[in-house]
Design a protein that fits this description.
With 340 residues, the chain is α/β, with parallel strands linked by helices. It is built from twelve helices and 13 strands. α7 (186-207) packs parallel to α8 (223-235) and α8 crosses α9 (271-285). It is globular. GO terms for molecular function: dihydroorotate dehydrogenase (quinone) activity.
Length: 340
């Protein structure tokens, strides 16, 4: 069934239930061998962090938290996939309801709280998958881990996912885990990245191959914070920066009945701020660190604008909820038309 016909049915459901139902339907379509026929591969070779992508349009973390639907998602036309955020131990996340649609604005508010089945279960899921494309794995810390001990959780996940990942994303920007964004401050970030970089190099020596590290940051940064993060990323030779996560701002959705719900806002209203932060980082990093643009992309034109702001590749999530898988091809084709 085309997504345009399916969406009104899904939107009658609770958003989290609709999310789970969509993934289950996607898996059934995959097993029936319907997805490749409907979407197929979208080739536009791109290199990011030294990794060759099929095309520059990827899946953002958060949609497949446990890596349970990798094979099905890989047939929608993405150039790469990112799964997670995963934590060392399983955790339930925040209390429900924790996911809200703002349909009039093409937006979503979530306070999921890194709900996932833990890193060991994710690895088991990845081992079962047949996908052999580019797979990013997004790692975080458990909610019960004090922020001053966060490095322990990141190292725990890094060591376990390393042999399965094309790249690994360190998520320090979710607004839904208490104090997590404190890790974006100067001293905390330096301590974290020093530990992660040392671990990465040890793992590279042990396995005989290098897996790039990306850092995912928030859109809610002032220019002084951008300076600090940019300098620290360069100092520790981090391979990539993903800009951005969701925002705590409610600009653009004022007056909506869900405006006062706690959590991060994603979708079209975050696009401007997200792209602005992306551009600020591009100016400071000057090509030394590859940038992935994410936030508010719901058509091909906005995908192109992320690349014009300095991104090498982009990622989609909320736009898929409103536009469906056809958005992937739209973005690929718009980028190809602009840069052919």
């Amino acid at each position: 069934m085309p997504y345009a016909l399916l969406r009104p049915i899904l939107f009658t459901m609770d958003p989290e239930q609709a999310h789970e139902t969509t993934l289950e339907l996607l898996e059934k379509a995959h097993r029936a061998k319907l997805l490749g026929f409907a979407y197929g591969k979208q080739a536009l070779p791109t290199t990011c962090m030294g990794v060759q992508l099929l095309n520059p349009v990827g899946l953002a973390a958060g949609l497949d938290k446990n890596g349970a639907y990798i094979d099905a998602l890989s047939e929608l036309g993405f150039g790469f996939l990112e799964v997670g955020t995963v934590t060392p131990m399983p955790q339930a996340g925040n209390d429900k309801p924790r996911l809200f649609r703002l349909k009039e604005h093409g937006a979503i508010i979530n306070r999921m709280g890194f709900n996932n089945d833990g890193v060991d279960q994710m690895i088991a899921n990845i081992e079962r998958a047949k996908y052999n494309g580019v797979l990013g794995i997004n790692i975080g810390k458990n909610a019960i881990t004090p922020v001053e001990n966060a490095l322990d959780d990141y190292i725990y996940c890094l060591e376990r996912v390393y042999p399965y990942a094309s790249y690994i994303t360190v998520n320090i920007s979710s607004p839904n885990t208490k104090n997590l964004r404190d890790l974006q401050s100067a001293d905390a970030l330096a301590h974290l990245l020093d530990g992660i970089k040392n671990c990465q190099m040890q793992l590279a020596n042990s396995y005989g191959f290098y897996v790039p590290i990306a850092l995912k940051i928030a859109p809610d940064l002032d220019l002084e914070q951008v300076d600090v993060i940019a300098n620290t990323v360069i100092d520790f030779e981090i391979d990539g920066l993903i800009a951005t996560n969701t925002t705590l701002s409610r600009t653009g959705v004022e007056g909506h009945r869900h405006v006062n719900e706690a959590g991060g806002l994603s979708g079209r209203p975050v696009n401007h701020q997200s792209t602005l932060i992306l551009s600020e980082f591009a100016n400071r990093l000057a090509g030394k660190v590859d940038l992935i643009g994410v936030g508010g992309i719901d058509d091909g034109e906005l995908a192109v604008k992320k690349l014009q702001a300095g991104a090498v590749a982009i990622q989609l999530y909320s736009g898929l909820i409103y536009k469906g898988p056809a958005l992937i091809g739209d973005c690929v084709q718009s980028i190809a038309s602009q840069y052919a």
